[in-house]
Design goal:
The structure holds 3 protein chains of 3 kinds. In chain B, about 35% of the residues lie in helices and about 15% in strands. Chain C is an alpha/beta fold. Chain C contains 13 helices and 15 strands. Chain C starts with a strand and ends with a helix. Classes of the chains: A alpha+beta, B alpha/beta, C alpha/beta. Chains in contact: A-B, B-C. Bound molecules: thiamine diphosphate, iron/sulfur cluster (3 copies) and magnesium ion. One iron/sulfur cluster binds next to α8 of chain B.
Chain lengths: ~80, ~250, ~350
Amino acid sequence: MNKLVIDKDRCKGCGLCIEVCPKKILHFDNSIVNLLGYHPVAADDGCIACGFCSTICPDIVFSVYKDVKEGETVGKAVDEGQ
Amino acid sequence: MKVVFERPRSLQLTRTHYCPGCGHGIVHRLVAEIIDEFNIQEKTIGIAPVGCSVLAYNYFDIDMQQAAHGRAPAVATGIKRVLPDRVVFAYQGDGDLASIGTAEIIHAAGRSENITVIFINNAIYGMTGGQMAPTTLVGQKTETTPYGRDPKMAGYPIKICEILSVMDGPAFIARVAISDVKNILKAKSMIKKAFQMQIENRGFSLVEILSPCPTNWGMTPGDAMRWINDEMTKVFPPGIYKESWEVLA
Amino acid sequence: MEKLLMKGNEALAEAAIRAGCQCFFGYPITPQSELPAYLAREMPKRGRVFLQAESEIAAINMVYGAAGAGARVMTSSSGPGISLKQEGISYLCGAELPCLIVNIVRGGPGLGDIQPAQSDYFQATRGGGHGDYRTIVFAPSSVQELVDLVYDAFDLADIYRNPVMILGDGILGQMMEPVVFREKPRRQLPPKTWATTGKKGRGQNIITSLYLDPVKLEQHNWKLDKKYREIMARECRWEVINGDDAEYFVVAYGICARIAFSAIEMARSAGVKAGLIRPVTLWPYPQKAFDDVMNRAKAFLTVELSLGQMIDDVKLSVNGRAPVYFYGRPGGMVPTAEDIFNEILKMKGASV
Ligand SMILES: Cc1ncc(C[n+]2csc(CCOP(=O)(O)OP(=O)(O)O)c2C)c(N)n1
Ligand code: SF4
Ligand code: SF4
Ligand code: SF4
Ligand SMILES: [Mg+2]
């Protein structure tokens, strides 16, 4: 399983990650208010670890880890940037 | 588990003071990633400008100097001449670089000072509350162009990449946008090339970054990104404006 | 030790090199041109940096960068250029960066002329830029003293982490005099652990004058104040001539002091017990020089190449204990010894 870590107290609720997530699994968690006073982003299951959210997030909220099998490479987005 | 993304080492844990959806945060991260990838954290010196990114030294975990408004290229010159084996970059906004600091940027480029300049073009004076910048688009409303920038009164946007690219000095001049994931990755590869130019002693490099200021544009972060793609890139076309791989004598 | 006959501007340049100046950044202006010309020739030969900047604004900010990177660095200019450097000097003081700034003063205001003047005294001693700050200001009156003060200026800049200014004038800059470059014992200088050289092997270093929190900025300003008071207590320099018996004192610095010296000789031949107070530091101002002679002093005559600027400090130092008179020539005109002699006689006449 891929792993998506969300540092909720860094989120400023800009919503950019929600727009770019290809799996549409990100949304604001309206049940909590974080340290900065925003409803932070939360994720449903189904992350493909493409790194789109962490690429566009201005506030380093995400850490993204991919469960790779032998010989497999990570998402294209990340490779291009390297 | 393969790491797709983690905070780059060259950024501190500190939360930034930037508004939600501000481009400064994205560009800080890209620069920090590149510093990590070149493994130059311990020999890089950054210069923070006057502008929203004045506190950049609280976010980068590298040695930094804060410069007077527009003078970052001169400060960078002073540092680089003293420490030619260090990597020196100036981080500047459009008011800083293209208005009050035009002399400094043009002459640093003319001397082919072996430094890298990260130029944040957000078409506005962010820090002072949204006044017209030299890069404000014709028709764009700001605090000081409340009816839209009228070229008869306020002139036309200044195009730094175009200006610098006709000079002999610069080694690398490029313009990028950070308006979507693809463009952000492209921006990173251009910034990386700019640093590589410096590391390989090829002279002056500058990357202009079309960057959102949702707050002073009066837009949602998402709309601000779209405005870059739809409007800003028409006036400021992205691309490589100059690339010369000669090594400085 | 070898005596060399040198022009003031060139001697200053050579002294800077011998004092270990690693880089010079400047923009051309008369009457200091021989200084950058000399450095442009000599610095590259000795592996140092000479750079002609695009403006005085760029030059002072290059000084900021180089000083922040730990180098011994200087710039030089004259009035109009020094005016442009003011923002940078304020930043240097705020960020506590050491450097040497030379002002070979010319006549003003505006473009003025290129003749010797002392009309930048306020700018130098009060700080022409914004904020609460001080720069140490040296006012040499001979080429030899100019040379000696260059070494001290760099050392004091490093010791106090503060810009030091040498205030000269066109006559001093152009004057040929014999000089000896002493190998003075170097002072013990503090290591520049604060310099931004890349954070290898230590934590992050930051050079800044920004303290957004007023509590922090106030603390910073009190810290600067403490340093300025230390400088005031330790670094005042002056020369008194005929201090033992003089009753009528001329107060003058730089080139004026040399002319005044001849004038007090004339006065003594005419039976007037004349003396001279010559401040060598204009900030901190040597108030003690006045205290020392106050029991005998009947009056003071301030002589300046200006409409009267140092006279404010003379009055503050005398503090109402004796009358203070003024004689000045503004705009690049220089008084003769006779002119000053006549003013001494007037002072005596007015004070009996
Ligand atoms: C000499 C001087 N003039 C004016 C200012 C006020 N000032 C602070 S930031 C700024 C504009 C910055 O705009 P920009 O460079 O575009 O940076 P942004 O905030 O948009 O990132 C101005 C004019 C100043 N600090 N110093
Ligand atoms: S890594 Fe990709 S799939 Fe996973 S949350 Fe982020 S954008 Fe969505
Ligand atoms: S992009 Fe970052 S700051 Fe913006 S909503 Fe998503 S997680 Fe929060
Ligand atoms: S005002 Fe604009 S540039 Fe400044 S932090 Fe806010 S969004 Fe960013
Ligand atoms: Mg801007």
